[in-house]
């Protein structure tokens, strides 16, 4: 990140899809609650809470009720002390009133807040006046509250896939539907469904084909509707499930 550290005030709502940055991103919750998924790990930034996202970490966010956060995009290496593993944090007490002041200053367009706010926030967050060390601050900052990942609506994804059998679906296609990266989706599929992403896709295609065959529909028509290359390919797939 070649540009200076930058502060901004951001409102979060529906997920725009996962992405990453080449710099640190520091979030401090001012109102509402923000649900994030950082490298597959759920993180919740509530009012008064915070989170530091490392450069290159793929993340996604969503706030059902809306969330307002003070956000610092920073290239300063000092933030590296707070990013492993991704977790919600309780910023030190001196950082919270400063964050609210900076948010107000940003709304009013005060140039000094933009110029000096990043350094002031870094100093307030990374310097523990009582214990005198960043390490002690980090050890006590992780929130004990369990984090949770935004759930995948598997039935909805299954219905979407059933409308796409005429195309060659990929893991990236499935991941895009639920606003995750392919690697994140693959991990979630393994954890939630107990199988790889393509295995899950094949199982859904075969289940749909079996359902249509159960209605008496001809094999050729079932193969056409569910995207099998030929009736014989469908018949072979059906046989394999009965004779593993």
Instruction: State the CATH topology of the largest domain.
Output: Jelly Rolls
User: What's the architecture of the largest domain in CATH terms?
Assistant: Sandwich
The strand count comes to: 7
| H/E topology pattern | EEEEEEEHHHHHHHHH
CATH H-level homologous superfamily name of the largest domain: Jelly Rolls
Kindly name the structural category. alpha+beta
Can you characterise this structure?
Helices cover 42% and strands 17% of the residues. The chain has 244 residues and is of the alpha+beta class. It has 2 domains: 6-141, Jelly Rolls (Sandwich); 154-242, Arc Repressor Mutant, subunit A. The chain has a 4-stranded antiparallel beta sheet with strand order 1-7-2-5. The chain has a 3-stranded antiparallel beta sheet with strand order 4-3-6, with no helix packed on it. β3 and β4 form a beta hairpin. α1 runs antiparallel to α2 (111-126), α5 packs across α6 and α7 (197-214) runs antiparallel to α8 (219-226). The N and C termini lie far apart (54 Å).
């Amino acid at each position: 990140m070649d540009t200076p550290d930058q502060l901004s005030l951001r409102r979060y709502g529906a997920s725009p899809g996962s992405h990453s940055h080449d710099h640190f991103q520091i979030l401090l919750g001012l109102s509402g609650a923000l649900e994030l998924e950082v490298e597959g790990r759920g993180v919740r930034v509530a009012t008064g809470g915070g989170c530091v996202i490392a450069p290159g970490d793929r993340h996604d966010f969503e706030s059902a009720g809306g969330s307002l956060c003070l956000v610092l995009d920073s290239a300063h290496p000092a933030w590296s002390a707070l990013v492993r593993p991704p977790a919600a944090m309780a910023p030190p007490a001196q950082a919270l009133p400063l964050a609210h002041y900076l948010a107000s200053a940003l709304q009013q367009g005060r140039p000094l807040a933009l110029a000096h706010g990043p350094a002031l926030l870094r100093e307030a967050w990374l310097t523990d006046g009582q214990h005198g060390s960043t390490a002690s601050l980090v050890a006590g900052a992780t929130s004990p509250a369990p984090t949770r990942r935004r759930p995948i609506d598997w039935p909805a994804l299954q219905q979407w896939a059933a409308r796409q059998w005429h195309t060659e679906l990929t893991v990236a296609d499935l991941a895009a539907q639920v606003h995750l990266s392919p690697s994140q989706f693959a991990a979630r599929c393994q954890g939630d469904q107990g199988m790889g992403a393509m295995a899950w896709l094949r199982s859904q295609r075969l289940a749909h084909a079996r359902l249509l065959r159960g209605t008496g529909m001809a094999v050729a028509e079932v193969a056409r509707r569910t995207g099998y290359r030929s009736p014989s390919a469908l018949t072979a797939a059906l046989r394999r499930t009965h004779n593993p």
